[in-house]
Design a protein that fits this description.
Elements lengths: L1 H10 L19 E2 L11 E4 L19 H4 L6 E4 L5 H10 L5 H4 L3
């Protein structure tokens, strides 16, 4: 019994996966919803239906009930262009008050 608990508590490392354990197409907790998604490799839009921006002037939360009236307003979506420079994308993520753990770690 002592050996079992010794191994469990002191030898086996605790597995704590970061959010998200896999690469995501959008910053954390954002959803891909775009008419442009039909173009392979083209830019697409990510919407925030949760309200995760840490900045008051960052990305605004989208309401599913009024989505059609706000979906083309740049204040309500985060545009992703797969051809964009990674550092430029990181700066835009931070400027919008978002995080993208699978791509930038804690940033």
């Amino acid at each position: 019994m002592l050996y079992f608990y010794y191994v469990k508590w002191f030898i086996i490392p605790e597995n704590k996966p970061d959010w998200s354990p896999y690469p995501t197409p959008c910053p954390d907790y954002l959803t891909v919803m775009s008419d442009d998604a039909a173009t392979p490799g083209g830019p697409y839009k990510c919407y925030d239906f949760v309200g995760v921006s840490r900045r008051p002037d960052g990305l605004k939360k989208s309401d599913p009930r009024t989505f059609d009236s706000t979906k083309n307003n740049p204040q309500y979506y985060f545009m992703i262009d797969p051809k964009e420079n990674k550092e430029s994308l990181r700066q835009r993520v931070l400027a919008h008050g978002l995080s993208w753990n699978s791509l930038f770690g804690d940033a």
